[in-house]
Amino acid sequence: MKTLIVGAGALGGIIGARLLAVGASVSLATRNATSAEAISASGLRVTGIGGDLSIEAGEVAPLAEYSAPGTFDLIVLATKAHDAIDVAPSLARLLAPGGTLLPIQNGGVAQMLASQLGDECVLGALSNLTGTMLRPGIYEQSNAGYLLIGELGGGESVRSERVRLWLSRAVNVKVTPNLQGAVWSKLLLNCSVTTIGAIAGLTMRAYIDRPEGRELFYRTYDEALSVALASGVRPEKMLVDPIPPGWKGRTISGEALDLWLVEILNSYGDAKASMLQDFERGRTTEIDFINGYVVDTARQFGLNAPVNTAIVETVYATTRGQSAPDPNLLGQILYPEPVGQHIARFDGEKDVQQA
Description:
globular, 5-stranded parallel sheet, Rossmann fold
């Protein structure tokens, strides 16, 4: 499959390098000429889990220079979510007849693109691979994760199996008949782990030790899960069972819940939130595709999602420079009323309600 990888950051670079190393036909599209020139000069080098490799970059150019219609059988879209929405319409014409666009962003990006471009050319995906771009063309893979792909409408297909076989030459790839459920399962953790860590400026292990941090984690998770279930999605087990033990519209305290939380902490507890890195670098965050996606979905089904809405507003304020990451923001999100007034413990069956 003649393949174009759009985005040469950590994920796109690692996949591209590993495909090139096994002799695949791969081109790389960068944001600008400066990045393309740097990668062409340095080649591609990957270290870490999965094995080290060093290889010439092959064809690498700014995305704008790829203009020949019908060139690629597969386009892997490995940019930030907002960039994916912007560039995807121009990518459709680069696909050969029967070609596939594979967006691998968090949240509802694939669904948004399918509504614009059609299900026939968009295949859904998400990634559990992690890595770091040390500089253009130089990457470190930090886990043995995988790409999860599947049809947005559910079920199995010849197309998804064909793409799995092709990309499995480079990284671990799995197919699921319930991609929407998998997307929501990851989204639940992104909403409650990544975003809260960014707002607080802390790792999950640090903020979960604070009463207000633990409370906000559970309230955010409960609300997002309630929205997912109301939309008809069946969340699929990924890292942990997406429905906490004993859940009845809200998390139920107890030993089983504590053990469930420990599983999440073992995987994410010490990681620096990617959104926090966006704050530090002055980059646009993906909040619209994480907690913002929960809020939008709730609205579509006539529901309110007040906690996630407050989180989105807090991230916007930080992006505008009106606030900065601070643990004190956790309590302000939980208790937005004047000092001395207290908001009762979240009950998903009441707070996620008809608008």
